[in-house]
Design brief:
- The radius of gyration is 13 Å and the shape is globular.
- Helix content is 0%, strand content 57%.
- It is an all-beta fold and 92 residues long.
- The chain is built from no helices and seven strands.
- The two termini are 14 Å apart.
Length: 92
């Protein structure tokens, strides 16, 4: 939480996701989209935990000093967001 991020900052962690597919997006404090939904693949799919390491991308510059990184999966059944983790961040 409250890590300073910019385009190119590594996003690393561990996830348990169907076929290893994990998604993220970033919003600034005014809920403007900084990064549209992007996906990446963890090293293993569920039920195992897989590691991931990707570079954060920005689609536009944030207009506030803080925001939220959202990391989640989507339901194979109906596409709804599942396992949402919201992390407050600061922009460089």
């Amino acid at each position: 939480p409250n890590t300073q991020i910019a385009a190119g900052t590594p996003l690393t962690g561990v996830a348990r996701a169907f076929e290893g597919t994990v998604l993220y997006q970033i919003e600034d404090a005014d809920e403007r989209v900084v990064t549209r939904e992007r996906f990446f693949t963890a090293s293993e799919g569920g039920p195992s935990f897989g590691q991931f390491n990707v570079s954060i991308e920005f689609d536009q510059q944030p207009e506030t000093a803080t925001g939220t990184l959202l990391v989640y999966t989507r339901s194979a059944r109906d596409g709804s967001i599942q396992d949402l983790v919201e992390v407050p961040v600061r922009f460089r």
